Amino acid sequence: MTKPSADQTQKTDIKISLIGGHRLDGATLHERTLTVSLVGGADVDLTDVEIPDGAELRITKLSLIGGVSLKVRPDVRVEVRGLRLGGVRDTGPTEPGGPTVRIDAWGLVGGVSVHRP
Questions:
Q1: Average pLDDT estimate for 10-29
Q2: What CA–CA distance (Å, rounded) separates 71 from 51?
Q3: Distance in angstroms (rounded) separating the CA atoms of residues 84 and 113
């Protein structure tokens, strides 16, 4: 992933399924990803992705049932927004700056878990 300049348009990946979740990694993601499922979560592994300082990678998850399991490097800040029944588990950096992954999780049931090596 590279930090887009002001005149570049950001690419958006869209993943849709009725039943079943999505497995996403650095090779399958662009700056923005939308994953939609009726029942199923998203398993996202970004441990091998170089996110430049100040850049933001954005993942939007829409589902009735299903959460997000996110794996990132220890220096990546994670912001979680949205509405869902289920908490957020993250013990990573909270200060602004550095690389950021933003998760917009919208659903009825499902939390967001952040794992760091």
A1: 85
A2: 13
A3: 13
Return the exposure string of 29-51: e unless at least 16 CB atoms fall within 10 Å of the residue's CB, then b.
bebbbebbbebbbbebbbeebeb
User: What is the pTM (predicted TM-score) of this model?
Assistant: 0.81
What is the mean pLDDT of the segment spanning 2-29?
75
> With helix as H, strand as E and coil as C, how does 53-92 read?
CCCEEEEEEEEEECCEEEECCCCCEEEEECCCECCEECCC
Q: What is the DSSP letter of 111?
A: -
Dihedral sign for Cα atoms in the order 49, 100, 33, 84 = positive
For the chain, what are the domain ranges?
12-115
Sort 66 into a burial class: Cβ within 10 Å, 0-12 / 13-18 / 19+. Answer: buried
